[in-house]
Amino acid sequence: MKCVFLVLATLGLSLAREVSTYDHFRLPTALRPQKYDVRILTQLENPEDFRFNGTVKIQIEVLQNTRNITLHSKDLAINDTEIALSEVGGEGKPGNCIASTEVNPTHDFYILNTCKELLAGQVYELSLHFSAKLEDQLSGYYRSSYEDAVANETRWISVTQFEPASARLAFPCFDEPGYKASFAITLGYHQKYTGLSNMPVKETRPHESIPDYVWTAFEDSVPMSTYLVAYSVNDFSHKPTTLPNGTLFRTWARPNAIDQSDYAAQFGPKVLQYYEQLFGTKFPLPKVDQIAVPDFSAGAMENWGLVTYAEFTLLYSPEYSSIEAKKGTANIVAHELAHQWFGNLVTMKWWTDLWLNEGFATYVANLGVEDIHPEWRTLQLNSISDLLTIFRTDSLESSHPISRPIEMTSQISESFDDISYQKGSSVIRMMHLFLGEETFRTGLKSYLERYAYKNAEQDNLWESLTQAAHKTGSLPTDYDIKTIMDSWTLQTGYPVINVTRNYTARTARLSQERYLLNTDISRAHKGCWWVPLSYTSQEEKDFNNTAPKEWMECTETGESVSKTIRDLPGPDQWVIFNNQLSAPYKVNYDAQNWKLLIATLNSEEYQSIHVVNRAQLIHDVLYFAWTGEQDYEIALQLISYLQRERQLLPWKTALDNLSFLSSILRQTPNNMFYKSFIRKLITPIYEHMNGINDTDSSIQQHDKVLLKGMVANWACTYEVSDCVSQAVSYFRNWRLEANPDELNPVPLGVRGIVYCTAIEHGSDEDWDFLWTRYQKANVATEKMTILDSLACSLEVWVQQRYLERIFDAKGDIRKQASLVVFPSIASAKVGFFLAKKYLMENVDSISKFYHPQSESMADILRPFSELIFTRRDYDEFKDFIANSKEHLKDIEQAISQSLETMLINVQWKERNYESFTLAIKNLAEINLVSE
Ligand SMILES: *[C@@H]1O[C@H](CO)[C@@H](O)[C@H](O)[C@H]1NC(C)=O
Ligand SMILES: *[C@@H]1O[C@H](CO)[C@@H](O)[C@H](O)[C@H]1NC(C)=O
Ligand SMILES: *[C@@H]1O[C@H](CO)[C@@H](O)[C@H](O)[C@H]1NC(C)=O
Ligand SMILES: *[C@@H]1O[C@H](CO)[C@@H](O)[C@H](O)[C@H]1NC(C)=O
Ligand SMILES: *[C@@H]1O[C@H](CO)[C@@H](O)[C@H](O)[C@H]1NC(C)=O
Ligand SMILES: *[C@@H]1O[C@H](CO)[C@@H](O)[C@H](O)[C@H]1NC(C)=O
Ligand SMILES: [Zn+2]
What we know:
Helices cover about 40% and strands about 20% of the residues. The termini are far apart. The relative contact order is 0.06. The site of one 2-acetamido-2-deoxy-beta-D-glucopyranose has 6 residues, from strand 3 and strand 9. InterPro entries: Aminopeptidase_N-like_N, Aminopeptidase_N-like_N_sf, ERAP1-like_C_dom, M1_APN-typ, Peptidase_M1, Peptidase_M1_aminopeptidases, Peptidase_M1_dom, Peptidase_M4/M1_CTD_sf. Belongs to the peptidase M1 family.
């Protein structure tokens, strides 16, 4: 292949760089990249001048005649005079050239107009030089750093984060997921570093002119999308691990944290092997590297063969991290490795179907962790947590369908949300449960085989699954997956099913409507869902059967049809729909059925209702009380059974729900009644768990450790029993240690609660002590726990100082951690007004602080939504948002969801506050009498 470099400057032409008139948000479809050759030189030695430059050569196939090459490029300096274009295999023919270039800054297009038409069927090679500063913006190709305490030096590394649309910040490319191509990456850097990329190293040789520099070339990649390309230059250490016959697996971290990588290094290869078996397809690359990056905006990124993680998600220290953190590591590694199939091998055609990536990875990760750590019961816990999350988000009018049109980069970023992940995961679980194991696996396998190295849409998946389902007979032949699943993925929301029993005829009439929290909006004609109906009764108690006995159907025009269920038991027996919450819907019963359920829950027999359905009943009744479909009297009667409950899920459900009430009540004069209500609720379980005493190691069951932590958190907040004094004494003992960074007497599972309680009830010296521990800590999860707890102070000036500290770019708090700390301050007892004022006064500098990641502002706004519940505060916030439009760009979804949540709180206050407080006052009086 011969490259014809046309240096136009020597011809005396100056290129006009105009602003283009092509204004569609997608690339034209006339061209298709086949192969990229990317060479990047990175300079990390001079802290005054971090930069990279490089060359990209792209082989482009012409599908339709065209006179331009339109690429993505953002914030890159491209020297127009060095662009070369030649026809591959066109030796001897007259060459082509670039006549002019244009840019479209709205869509990040870089458009090269060619001298002659490019002809369909031909392949061209385009070559470009580019350069840019290596910034710390956490997207594209950026720098990160860590402190080497021994040498007392800052060490610098570089790494990429391209998803969804930042490859264009690193090199000019066709930056859409549909343009898969092979990538040959070559990295140039000082020889004291290591270079990593998706593929293994092919060769390393000295740089031709720069002393002590090398070029490392990596093998050509398999065909993949630009957002999955990754590389890093660093001086990290690594742990090798290989399973017999398994893929080569290495785990990388800064040298002083490498001992925290053991768990991830062992877990990764195991889960990869599990997936090879589950999907019946071998992992296609020769190796996987996983790397813990000190500055990282997301939790992790599934780059094919080079998976990147934030330190606190990948690293785990048995001495400093909680079991929850360990589980988090397992879960995120399982998620990213599931993407190697769902996302990397088969990729969505366009971001509309992002949920195919994220929903699958979320669900399949649960299967992976369950397989390796069955004792954690991850599948159940995570599946139900996902449902509880979407039952809230997706009951907002401002939610959106799983599959949604995407027209702007900012919309892609906003799609990485509960709906793509948790709702996506929940509907896949529903499908798994109604299709059964064999059909599910066969369907997935054929989908993965059919679309390997290609792109797919949800309809392609529906087709594979329908074929499998009809073959095995797990779906009636007149049903197809597309009809059923479109009702879940193309419509916003989920249904509530009313079950009205006829106790003499032993039937029940079922009707559905969309469940909405906002009671000002009519629910009529808001959609219809195909609902698999599983149910059981008091005499049958067959909760394990999650296969549908019947279906709720919809008409062809999408209208709901009511359904009658026959052969139900008599009037003294309850029925429950949705065994183990196998599908995402709520159920409201008639008064008699609720009464029967409440009676069983409040008896010795409460465990005859499956633990997941106990959680479901708590969840549903509290929501129905909130929206006024059920009395708080009934809801409180139901949850009073919790005094017997010892399992995690019902407690988690109850406390998650009550936290919305807590946020409001704690700002009202009736908080004292609420406080005594919570104390009464929590005390039995707190005492059962032996308070916050004890270490985790004495508790065998993982979910008991989580339950203990959760209960302790409420107990210390509501000053139950000895919680506060115990916490303060643990903290005091820690302060007395001669070497507190080495020895910490606080049990791992309750560290966050102990620190927070001690800061709340402690002195300035306690705060400073903890801040010093933060500075000295070497374990990222411990650092996060401390930062979060430092927000618990009740001193206004301490909070104010902390607010200023988190937005200090040169300070000790990394940018991604600030996104955790600000919400913690906003939701702290005395933080709300301070944080609100701080945000309102400094919105311009805060938005500059996060630039160009404008989506970070969503995390800054979100905590206020739970805390605002008066019309006046709501109006103030709405005005603030209207007046700050320019600083709150690209987060329209977060804004409308926050405002709607506030409005829902306002409605609750106006409708329920009086009746709710009356109900808890009555409970308190009953207590006084009975005690
Ligand atoms: C990149 O920068 C290096 C060092 O400044 C220089 O030697 C090299 O020519 C540059 N490469 C390109 C492709 O611009
Ligand atoms: C580039 O070519 C495509 C296909 O021929 C065309 O649709 C598009 O409008 C052109 N772009 C510009 C900026 O002329
Ligand atoms: C662009 O490239 C030409 C030819 O290599 C060189 O003379 C010129 O200085 C470059 N311009 C910039 C701005 O780097
Ligand atoms: C580390 O270096 C900084 C400046 O580079 C210096 O101020 C500080 O005293 C040094 N610390 C130690 C422990 O040597
Ligand atoms: C490894 O693979 C070889 C050949 O495929 C096979 O004979 C051998 O049993 C495998 N070893 C293990 C431990 O799975
Ligand atoms: C379901 O029950 C609620 C509360 O009784 C009622 O407001 C609603 O109209 C019913 N919806 C349907 C579809 O039957
Ligand atoms: Zn993911």
